[in-house]
Amino acid sequence: MAGHELIERHLQTLAERLPDPVVEELADGLLASYDDQMERLGDPDAAARAALADFGDADTVIAAFVRASPGRQAAFRLLVAGPIVGLSWGAVLVTGNAWASTIPPSSRLALGLLLGSAVLMLLIAIREGRRYRRVRLAALVGTATVAVLDTAILGTVLTLLPPPSLLLLVALTGSITRIMLAAQAIPELVMRP
Predict the structure, then answer these.
(1) Residues near 154 by Cβ (< 8 Å), separated by ≥ 6?
(2) Cα distance between residue 53 and residue 117, in whole Å
């Protein structure tokens, strides 16, 4: 398979912003298209331009892969679940005032900082449109932070043993669900480029 300078530059741009296995697969398709165009047109420059026109510009290809990335999908799921779980825990704290007051201010601050950093990382993963690796890293950090946050909340609840209520059941279920979502997403974010 012969290459062309335009094709190589295109692949280099993709390699700067996409994982290597993805770029290798795209390279196979682009080079096959170039070979087909060479057979049809016979001119290397015209064949390269035609192959690139069929393939799409680098920004469009990269944006499509970023939109479909597992990191972005995991971040979206966790951000959708976040307000529901947060409101549930807020209702538990308001209605169970006796046990909420036993949580030290430093723990409340730490949980607040964890929550803020998780939300920030998940928002970065969703808003980033051109850098696949940034989406993956932000989603991984945000997802892990959500898991730590929910685990800390569950540990606190088990330690303080608030009175049972339907609100507590809903909040516990929400946190456990988010931990399961995080546990499902983290290995994929670590293992998959």
Answers:
(1) 172, 175, 176, 179
(2) 41
Q: What distances in angstroms separate CA 122 from CA 68, 107, 111, 125, one per listed residue?
A: 15, 22, 16, 5
Q: What residues in the chain have per-residue pLDDT under 50? A: 1
Which residue from 68, 50, 66, 42 is spatially nearest to 10, judged by alpha carbons? 50
- Cβ neighbourhood burial of 102 (10 Å; 0-12, 13-18, 19+): exposed
End-to-end CA distance of the chain: 26
Q: Tokens in use for 131? A: 């850098």
Token pair 């909340």 is found at: 153
The reported pLDDT for the residue numbered 1 is 42
Give me the pLDDT at residue 177, please: 95
pTM above 0.85, yes or no: no
Nearest partner of 139 among 68, 58, 67, 74, judged by Cα: 74
